[in-house]
């Protein structure tokens, strides 16, 4: 907001936690930059013909994506057969569920999967209308602190890549905005590295969490902005997985996802 304000540009931050809502907002032009969008959502949008391009990386955090239940007997893919499981479709969490079930040669057809936002899935778990909630970040942490049973997290199952994305059209038409965005991102990354305690304090206040909670979760995340070969491999692994599981219909070369 500070940097763009100096350019005479007003920023409007839309909090969208569903990957489908994010990519739809980008496609409609309501949003010009997706500041934290899952690889699954990017791939799904691109596979459907949308103009979406990865600008750089936001984070990688497989341990931050989890499945929680109040029933501690739900401790294997087989135990989820017929259970109601809620979470946002077309996201890293969706991929986590499909990947977890695949360990037992199961699919979404073997469970009652309900498409819900993370807050709604958490509310459903609290209220007893769902057996398992797909949760990430602060919602997952709060579920654990409430004594919920963690069925699994994404470690070894998904790469949990979160990217920063825009459209090729916006990138080509507004190079000065993109240049400032990347400069501001680097400024934020440098601040986080140089001021870890202040960063944790700011985040704790914004998320209404205690600082110990943020400190614990902070270790789950790699916030490097650069797109590494490992990141590209992760994108391709996710795209191949989505093809195998029927989430997309045609093979996708993920090299087409990055700004040319």
Characterise the protein shown here.
The chain is of the alpha/beta class. It has two domains: 2-61 and 160-185 and 224-257, D-Maltodextrin-Binding Protein, domain 2; 63-153, Periplasmic binding protein-like II (D-Maltodextrin-Binding Protein, domain 2, 3-Layer(aba) Sandwich), CATH 3.40.190. The protein is built from eleven helices and eight strands. Helix 2 (19-28) crosses helix 3 (39-47) and helix 9 (196-207) crosses helix 10 (211-218). The longest helix is centred in the last third of the chain and has 20 residues, at 175-194. The chain is globular, with a radius of gyration of 18 Å. The model has no long low-confidence stretch (mean pLDDT 93).
Name of the level-1 CATH class of the largest domain: Alpha Beta
Low-confidence residue ranges: none
Q: What's the Cα radius of gyration?
A: 18 Å
CATH topology of the largest domain: D-Maltodextrin-Binding Protein, domain 2
Q: SSE string, helix = H, strand = E?
A: HHEHEEEHEHEHEEHHHHH
Strand order of the largest sheet: 5-4-6-3-7
CATH H-level superfamily of the largest domain = Periplasmic binding protein-like II
Indicate the percent of residues in helices.
Answer: 40-55%
In short:
By secondary structure, this protein is an alpha/beta fold. Helix content is 45%, strand content 16%. It has a 5-stranded mixed beta sheet with strand order 5-4-6-3-7. Strands 1-8-2 form a 3-stranded antiparallel beta sheet.
Key terms for this structure?
260 residues; alpha/beta; D-Maltodextrin-Binding Protein, domain 2; 2 domains
């Amino acid at each position: 907001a500070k940097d763009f304000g100096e350019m005479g540009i007003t920023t409007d931050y839309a909090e969208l936690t569903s990957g489908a809502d994010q990519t739809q907002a980008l496609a409609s032009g309501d949003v010009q930059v997706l500041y934290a969008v899952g690889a699954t959502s990017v791939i799904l949008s691109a596979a459907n013909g949308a103009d979406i391009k990865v600008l750089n990386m936001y984070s990688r955090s497989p341990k931050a994506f989890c499945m929680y239940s109040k029933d501690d007997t739900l401790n294997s893919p087989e135990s989820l057969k017929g259970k109601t499981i809620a979470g946002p479709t077309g996201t890293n969490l969706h991929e986590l569920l499909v990947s977890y079930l695949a360990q037992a040669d199961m699919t979404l057809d073997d469970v009652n999967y309900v498409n819900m936002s993370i807050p709604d899935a958490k509310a459903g778990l609290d209220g007893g209308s769902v057996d398992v909630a797909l949760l990430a970040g602060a919602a997952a942490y709060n579920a654990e602190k409430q004594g919920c049973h963690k069925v699994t997290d994404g470690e070894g199952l998904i790469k949990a890549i979160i990217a920063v994305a825009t459209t090729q059209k916006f990138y080509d038409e507004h190079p000065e905005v993109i240049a400032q965005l990347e400069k501001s991102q680097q400024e934020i990354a440098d601040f986080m590295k140089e001021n870890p305690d202040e960063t944790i304090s700011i985040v704790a206040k914004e998320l209404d969490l205690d600082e110990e909670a943020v400190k614990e979760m902070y270790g789950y995340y790699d916030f490097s902005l650069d797109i590494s070969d490992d990141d590209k491999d992760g994108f391709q692994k996710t795209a191949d997985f989505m093809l195998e599981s029927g989430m997309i219909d045609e093979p996708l070369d993920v090299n087409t996802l990055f700004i040319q």
